[in-house]
């Protein structure tokens, strides 16, 4: 179906794309972790201020172990910031904290894509865990029905990743707007904050791109198998 060279190029791409995205995130974050915010606010203070400015008082801000482990847990109503970002006063840490609060604001405003993503979680989880089992079984047994089932399950996981993109980009846009409006960053710090947020978004874009490429590959395999 594909030439050996095409296979090498394809697998090279799906390996290089996520690695590049991770390297970009780490290098950008490390660079701006060394630059202190002019406000002198910690990530925890940034998160709390933005939430207060938006009338949100039912969400806690907590430190969590690890690096770049920051996330918002809507089920527990908690923003969890990695310790460096929670206690630190860097531009990078402030931007990450504001991004996570962007998700809090989405939740408070019942943002449609966030609501859709939440509903897709069980389907995406099932698809991620079982799609390859069906696909491999279908390929080994020569049963196109199993292959198709695996593709459908994989498609659910891919849709979840695609829906995640507008959720993450919107959270970053909200973060920038809130930091500027709240006076957390000066004009000359906006560019640096955007670089941090854009680098983080790149990981989601890379993940979605690889997922789509894999889905297309298996769809082509299914089509070819049924044409033989």
UniProtKB/TrEMBL annotation:
It comes from the Bacteria. The chain crosses the membrane at residues 6-23, 120-141, 147-169, 201-225. GO terms for molecular function: peptidase activity. One of its GO terms (biological process) is proteolysis. Keywords: Hydrolase, Membrane, Protease, Transmembrane, Transmembrane helix. The keyword Plastid does not apply. InterPro entries: Zn_peptidase_2 (IPR007395). PANTHER family: MEMBRANE PROTEASE YUGP-RELATED. This is Zn-dependent membrane protease YugP. It comes from Geomicrobium sediminis.
